[in-house]
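Submission sheet (multi-component)
Chains listed below:
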Amino acid sequence: MRLKTLLLALGVLAAALAPAACGGSSSGGSTTVIANGPHAASAPDIEDWPVFGRDRDNTRFATQDEINTDNVDELGEAWSTGLGPDQYLMESFPLVIGENVYVTTSTDEVMEINGKTGHINWTYTPEVDFSQSTGVGGYGITVNRGVAAEDGRLFLLTFDNNLQAISQKTGERLWSSQVEDPATGAYESMAPTAYDGKVYVGVSGSEDGVRGKVAAYDAKTGKELWTFYTVPKAGTKWVPEGGGGGTIYMPPTVDPATDTVYVGTGNPAPVLVGAKRPGRNLYTDSILALDAGTGKLKWFHQEQAHDLWDYDAESPVVLFDAEIDGKMTRGVAEAGKNGLLFLLDAETGEDLFPPVGFVKRDHKPPTTKPTLECPGPVGGSQYSPLAYSPETQAVYISGIELCMYLRVTYENHNGEKQFAGDRVVPKDTEKSGTFTAVGVDTGKVIWKHDMPTPMDGGATASAGGLVFTGDQRGILYAFDAADGDDLWQADLKLAFGTAPVIYSIDGTQYVLATVGGAALTASEELGEIGARVIAFKLGGKKLPKGPELKG
Amino acid sequence: MKRSGFLLGLLALVLALALAPAALAGGGKEGWGRTGSFIGRYHVKVLSGGGAGVRGGELTMFIQEEFPGSEAPAGILKLRTKRNNDVVYLKELEHRGRARTAIVKGGSFLGPTIGRFIGKLRRPGRIVANVSTRSLGTVELLFTRYSRKPTQ
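Outcome: structure written.
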């Protein structure tokens, strides 16, 4: 074990001795303790990947270092499993508890897969009404970004707005609660968050004028405990009739030390016609800090006031502890669709540093004539989760370099009823991306790669000094987390829409990629789509490399 | 009447009789075109489940429109097997007489073409079709419309 890892592990051990005080959560079927708080470091030393971002701080930092900068070139395929007939697109972020991987499909199935062999133990197939996908831009793209787990239960949000609890052991349904009426245009794509007997959810669909909300449900019964609406009711205050917005696309992050739920919100609606919704349009495109017990607002930080471009604060929030100006500070990081990374004080929501740009930014208010706007139709960083390494004190950002011609039409469309315009990626545009490391203690770019495709899906870091991410051609990269050196690649032949997870079973470390492409992959025809889960380990079957990165 | 005129008249009569049932049944009226008459939700009855053992499903037909002028008819077909929700997308809808055809896309309307929909209109709101995809094989399905609104 390297020195930094050892020090980190000692810190974590100290925190793990007082799990109850930290509100630690024990996941059913495993001995995992998910510690939190400024004194617990940001990455508990565990073998599993039991929550969305591995730990409560949502860091996507694995403490294992068996696979590291010295031996990563020995990484190869351990097993590969397809996820069923006609399965295309994969935006699911798996959990790993004990020996098992829990992954969802784009059609809301949940599968338990043996993490050593790739064998599917069981599949849960819910009854889902997919007809509402006529309303998702008229493109019918359904995705599911994963489950949450607590006390032997898995929690799933189905496309037609049902929160369901299923048995982690057998895959049988325990209860189901409707969180929103699909007739409103609302749909679900996010993974929920489970913590301390509550399941936290949001709803999606700002472009259809859906009213955003965050809600908590009782994990045992499915009963609604509280709801916080992110925007006023349609026809009141700044929201016009038929308008709304502020919807949620990714799982909330819970800080047990302060009993705070952090979540990002989407754009206001109507999307392009700002004259119909005066003012800042609170709390759209914002990071919200809510009381986990009551849903009461603690603070908000709006990333894009009076949004005219669909620049959501969509990606999940990461918590970190960093020494800033000689003072240990609890911080919040989030990469917005407006192409800016926000580093905020977790207690107050104030900027720790000026926002950091990671893609080209050049936009102006849209008009009835087409104007070129950057970032483009899916933003500078879409739902992609950041990774945070406490070793490098850096967050790693997946960036999308796409611009769009935007035009206000004032018309309601079959798909996005409240978009009121059209957006088109110029045909001759180069579709590329960025992958950027930014110091959370400095607010400065440490290193940056121009990537050959838009980057969608996020990143994963490890104590082995590595950061993993995948592109739209299907190339999985391992970079040196400290300096960005391109150390290893594998061509998986299927586009990425998620970031890998890392786990260990019987002392063997695995890197697990869920591949098959994202809604972005399909809509921009960027790469091959499908649905596979592929595990890697040292000494596994070698896969071909991708083309060399420029620069 | 000359002999050739008689033959032409006879031919016209035969053609008219041959086409009459289709016209009476509305086969020509309910095309998969821009008229929108086919729009709505359909129950799916499985006549032959194919290799994957399709057990049921639902079809939603609607006019897809990303931006003004881009309207195109489309369908979302959910098929239920023992283990999976199989959701595929119908594009490039065509009709000729009673015949109704489409290509089947996987993942989204912009996904890869993975199969064909070849059907026949029995009467308005009722179609029998063979749906073939890479994974399901060929299944024979009866579609019966029960709602004219795609989302209700």
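Remark: Confidence is low (pLDDT under 50) at residues 12-28 of chain B.
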